[in-house]
Amino acid sequence: MEGDCLSCMKYLMFLFNFFIFLGGACLLGVGIWVIVDPTGFREIVAANPLLFTGAYIMLAMGAMLFLLGFLGCCGAIRENKCLLLFFFMFILLIFLAELSAAILAFIFRENLTREFFTKELKKHYLRNNDTDVFSSTWNSVMITFACCGVNGPEDFEAVPHLPYSSLESVTPEACCQRELQSREGMFVNREACLTGVERFQNRQGCYTVILNSFETYVYLAGALAIGVLAIELFAMIFAMCLFRGIQ
């Protein structure tokens, strides 16, 4: 009976570690995508130290889970007490680190508010100056998502004009409607947009547009994180039980 129980626990341990292995691979893939993505999100992450750090933490956590899932599978199948103990200690450290990261994310959540992004936009945005990373990134985001500023075109009332600007317009060119939402897309009516004709401008703020676009994925990511923590907890329990059961 004890042998059957140990065998069952060994395969359950293998199964949980296989899921950890897959979870680590997913986190590793997302972390790499955020850091090397060429569509503009890399610059957004780089412009915010908190997001920049978070992307590398995700990358590191993904790599560690990937490795530990592999080690846990090997330790379970081979019934190696040394590997199982090593696995348990590192899973425990990762579990505590993830809990700490979640607490820090909750404490510093005000850095991702509408007011924070509005303040940063008014402070650093240089309109059509594409040599500036911050401005170029914001222009790419506004063109891609067909939005304007954080809250709307009114965000740019306090933003100074470039000295060589030909049209004294509050609304930047990136907020003008295009036939195709890319930098190569033709303007619907650029002159009318820059002179203040609202029907040729994107009036909705990017904060709302992006939040609505990624709302489903945010909940999915949260559910995935809870699932990973639960799997890690069960994996630690099975690892210790299997460790005690091996003669």
Automatic annotation (TrEMBL):
Cellular component annotations (GO), alphabetically ordered: plasma membrane
Stored InterPro entries: Tetraspanin/Peripherin, Tetraspanin_animals, Tetraspanin_CS, Tetraspanin_EC2_sf
Superkingdom, taxonomy of origin: Eukaryota
Entries under Gene3D superfamilies matching the protein: Tetraspanin
PROSITE patterns hit by this protein: TM4_1
Membrane topology: Multi-pass membrane protein
Transmembrane segments annotated in the record for this chain: 12-36, 56-77, 84-108, 217-243
Keywords: Glycoprotein, Membrane, Transmembrane, Transmembrane helix
Chief location bin: membrane
Location in the cell: Membrane
The family this protein is said to belong to: Belongs to the tetraspanin (TM4SF) family.
Protein name (record): Tetraspanin
Organism expressing this protein natively: Ciccaba nigrolineata
